[in-house]
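Hey, I was hoping to borrow your eyes for a little while. A protein chain has come my way and I'm curious about its shape. Take your time with it, there's no hurry, and the full record follows here:
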Amino acid sequence: MTTKIKKPKSAQNGHINASINSYMFNILIFILLTVIIYLGYSLFIKLSSNEKNDIEIRNNKKPSEIIQLEVLNGCGVSGVGDRFTDFLRANDIDVVKIGNYIQFDVDETIIIDRIGNKNNALYVANLLGVKEGNAITQINNDYFVDVTIIIGRDYFKQKPIKKD
């Protein structure tokens, strides 16, 4: 006589629970691998995009119709920023901020392009009578202006001050 030995129900439930846990872990691993591959691909695309090409494309643009800029006094002479601001506003430039630069020892006036359209900075430089070589690009996404002007000690040579 042969008798079959029945497994207790608790042993059967343990085997089913282990199978379910194993299945859930496999699904979780698949989801995590998918996320890692997606993030890796996104990082690759971000790093492989050539930002210089983007800047060159933007530099080929014409100056914007509305140029928003900030005027910073880097020479330390009182009232110079106001004179420049009045001159720029009279020439349809939107001055959104006036203030002092972090130091007052700037020798030459500098025009800084903040958004990657250097033609805006060149337009402002020509308007003020600043050398085009003093128009530079420093893109800063934290600034909400197109152009920054740092007035230097050569302010008296610029059109807002210079008497023709």
Notes: The chain has two domains: 9-49, 64-157. The chain is about 45% helix and 15% strand. The CA atoms of residues 52 and 58 lie 10 Å apart.
